[in-house]
Amino acid sequence: MFVLPWIIGAAVFLVYPLFMSFWYALNNIRLTSEGMRFTFLAQGNFTQILLSDPDFLPELVDYLLSTVISVPVIVVFAMMIALMLNEKIKGKGFFRLIFFLPVIIVSGPILNSLTEQNAGTISVIDTQAVTGAISSFLPEVIATPIAGLFSNMVTILWYSGVPILIFLSALQKIDKSQYEAAYVDGASGWEMFWKITLPSLKPMILLNCVYTIVFVSSNDQNKLIGLIKSAMFSGTSEKGYGYASAMAWLYSLVVLLLVGIFALIFMTRKDRYEKDARKADRKAKAERRKVLKIQRRQARHAKKYNRPTVR
Amino acid sequence: MGTRDRNGMIKLIAIYGLLICIGFIYLYPILYMISASFMTLDDLLDSSIQWIPSSFNLDNYRQAGASMNYGNSLLQSFLIAGLPTLCNLVACSLTGYGLARYKFRGKGIIIGLIILTFVLPRQITMIPTYSMYANLGILNSVWAFIVPAIVAQGLNAPIFIMIFWQFFRNVPQALVEAAKIDGAGHFKSFFSISLPTAAPAFITVALFSFVWYWNEFYLTQLFVHGVLVESSLTTLIIQLQNFNTNYSSYAQTAASGATNLNESIKMAGTLIAVLPLMILYFVLQRHFVESIDRTGITGE
Questions:
Q1: Is residue A225 within 8 angstroms of chain B, CB to CB?
Q2: Nearest chain A Cα distance for residue B57, angstroms
Q3: B positions 47-86 inside 8 Å of A (CB)
Q4: How far apart are CA B73 and CA B2, in angstroms?
Q5: Cβ distance B299 to A210 under 8 Å?
Q6: Among all residues of chain B, which has the CA nearest to that of A246?
Q7: Rounded to an integer, what distance in angstroms lies between the CA atom of residue A205 and that of residue A141?
Q8: Residue range B112-138: average pLDDT?
Q9: What residues does A31 pair with on adjacent strands?
Q10: What angle do CA A200, A204, A206 make, to 5 degrees?
Q11: What is the tens place of the pLDDT at every residue in A167-206?
């Protein structure tokens, strides 16, 4: 059994910690010399986090807004780059080299030290002007994350390394004959993109959205994560392991919710053609049922009047 | 934007222009880092100097390297990233193979769980894992990374399992059948038929795994370096994160011309922290890109 190591691993490193972390979250835990001392609090940790923690909720809202805004940007950007890299151009290898480089470099401390030096912003674009323009016609709640997006443009774009890879490999799998057929039928490049490329990239879009959310969520720059860790090791009596576990649970639920929402958006919106096909299918089925019904009735009648069946 | 045989001139120019512009924006931080890392303090303050330093100054590197304890950290980085990568390769390829080749009950549940482990933030299992490691006595050692990797629970292992799964699914079934008829067992057919064809998948996973372990700061600090009690193990990334304190302690002890910390020194430190990865990438990139083309990294 090849999967056995994984099953063992999942039991030890996934299922057990999950339960324990839930148990922790319901308790106040003090580290004493003879081990951990549990005090059962039920939902106490959660209410405390939600009602009286000064940092958690604002950070959570911040995180949500910035993720919701930056994920589409990253994915669309990645798709653009992938489309361009997929063209027949010279120096493809060189450009690929450039665009995959961030995959290697992206990591919290490095991004930190780069943003500290303001190397994360594009000096060519005047971010101040952009920020001002945005905040003048949008409410502040939405304007701030968008402005943040612009001021960290490069680092956000850097997240798109892996999505570019995924899109690129998906693009190369698209059957070329589809394009040829469309070309013969006189489709323009624009139409081909919307009718062929985009539908076949759809599963990859979902995958990339999920990947990006996960990546942004578990990135070292995410302040919530730092919050959880500092709660874990804070010496105060009301925080500690239990409090941090509760925080982690809340945070995880939010992330899962976010992923779920994105998944719903991309899964429910079916293709128009698919819908049509399904409709036609249903119609055909109804028709068939009708025919069967009539046949059955005929058979019944035939039996009743003892006549040979007419079919 | 479709793929036609013949590209118009204007379109080509547009694509090149866009690629070069975006490429520049993309590389801007790196270029900035390189240029700033050579500057002396005077160059930094001189507003007439934008990109090209007035002299080729290697002193920043010397100081950054010394304060990060470069040789030692480099070795340990390789150790801490390399060993779990090996374990990852073995465990994830086995799991991926098992998923691709055999049908068994509960397979759907396992796949669901794998996806769940990918989506679920690590923080949720972090705290019990931490105390579990502490009880097992593997906290603050490399084992804290190796043990989960052996059972395919390492960093980003779900992605690697998906890659292997996807890849082994594409290995022609007929080959395996033929081997079975010739009397090869399950392991024989795995090692002598599926493994040799999986080289691209192995390269991809190895590189990704190495890079992600190398760049992992949060878990490394928590499990290997230690938070409350620091172990002697450290990586370049951790040294970089703690650069300010490291540098000040270096500047205190060594009277070797250490000045105040300036951004050039910090940039030099950042650069040498990623330099090994960049070298690795430039050496391997041809294989890497090719193997990605062939693996089809895509799950789903």
A1: yes
A2: 19
A3: none
A4: 48
A5: no
A6: B124
A7: 27
A8: 79
A9: A36
A10: 115
A11: 887 787 777 777 788 888 877 777 777 777 777 777 778 8
Option in A24, A93, A259 nearest B127 (CB): A24
User: Any bridge partners for residue A37, and if so which?
Assistant: A30
**Dihedrals phi, psi of A37, to nearest 5 degrees:** -110, 125
The whole-model pTM stands at 0.75
Cα distance between the two ends of chain A: 57
Helix or strand or coil: residue A40? strand
Q: Is B256 on the interface with A (CB under 8 A)?
A: no
**Which residue bears the tokens 């079919």?**
A311
Element housing A28 (H / E): strand A27-32
**Rounded to an integer, what distance in angstroms lies between the CA atom of residue B158 and that of residue B114?**
6
For B182-214, write each residue's pLDDT tens digit. 777 777 777 777 777 777 788 888 888 888 888
CB contact under 8 A, B274 and A110: yes
Q: Which residues of A touch B98 (CB under 8 A)?
A: 1-4, 6
Residue B87 is which amino acid? C
Q: List the 248-267 stretch of A: residues with Cβ below 8 A of B.
A: 248-249, 251-252, 255-256, 259
Question: At a CB cut-off of 8 Å and minimum separation 6, what does B63 contact?
Answer: B247, B250, B258, B265, B268
Backbone angles phi, psi at B46, to 5 degrees: -75, 115
The residue to which tokens 């992992």 are assigned: B216
